[in-house]
Design goal:
This protein is α+β, with helices and mostly antiparallel strands and 200 residues long. Helices cover 16% and strands 44% of the residues. It is globular and about 40 Å long. The relative contact order is 0.11.
Length: 200
């Protein structure tokens, strides 16, 4: 399916296509974009009045995933860029104007709030991992979601293992792992009972 161009003929980046929506309120508010070379961008719509305005930042996938995993704030991804692409148009018109602005000179009140995390839950994180399964596999990374009081898995020789000394800490609950090794992406949901994780 051909993706629809969201921002057309932007300076430096060219056409940008909407990719993944993190927050929606009648229209995309915080979302990722791609260019024709599959480079990733993060976009925030910060005004929806007489004018509609956005800031667009170039990002890499690891930062995007860390943001979705609540390990980085939304603002951190924007501040990593020396300049941001601003897009704006008058409401109910089609013409969008573009201009690069130096990040340090932008009014911080227009950017995502300092200390703001997405606060995604397990289901939202799994949805993101499924959508970006190819990127996760290519990055050779893995992630895991464990509810509190679970023993922490460690990455040993490309396998996920549980320290035997910590198995007595396990409590009955769901445990979801999403990781890749040997160029194979694994998405699994495992339940453990009596201190043992099924499938291990």
């Amino acid at each position: 399916m051909t993706k629809k161009i969201y921002f057309e003929n932007t300076p430096k980046y060219g056409d940008l296509y909407i990719d993944y929506i993190f927050h929606y309120d009648d229209q995309p508010i915080l979302f990722s974009l791609r260019d024709k070379f599959s480079n990733l961008y993060l976009c925030v719509c910060y005004e929806l009045r007489e004018y509609q305005k956005w800031f667009i930042a170039k990002v890499d996938f690891n930062d995007l995933k860390q943001m979705n995993d609540n390990k980085k704030t939304v603002l951190e991804l924007f501040l990593k860029n020396n300049s941001l692409l601003q897009a704006q148009r008058k409401s109910f018109t089609k013409i969008i104007n573009y201009a690069f602005e130096t990040t340090k000179e932008i009014d911080q009140d227009l950017l995502p709030e300092k200390g703001f995390y997405l606060e995604t839950d397990n289901e939202e994180q799994e949805e993101f991992n499924e959508f970006y399964a190819k990127e996760i596999q290519e990055a050779g990374c893995y992630s895991y979601i464990i509810k509190e009081k679970f023993a922490q898995p460690v990455h040993i020789r490309k396998k996920i293992k549980i320290h035997l000394s910590k198995r007595n800490l396990l409590e009955k609950d769901a445990c979801t792992y999403n990781y890749s090794f040997n160029n194979t992406l694994i998405n699994s949901s495992k339940r453990k009972s009596g201190g043992v994780l099924h499938g291990f």
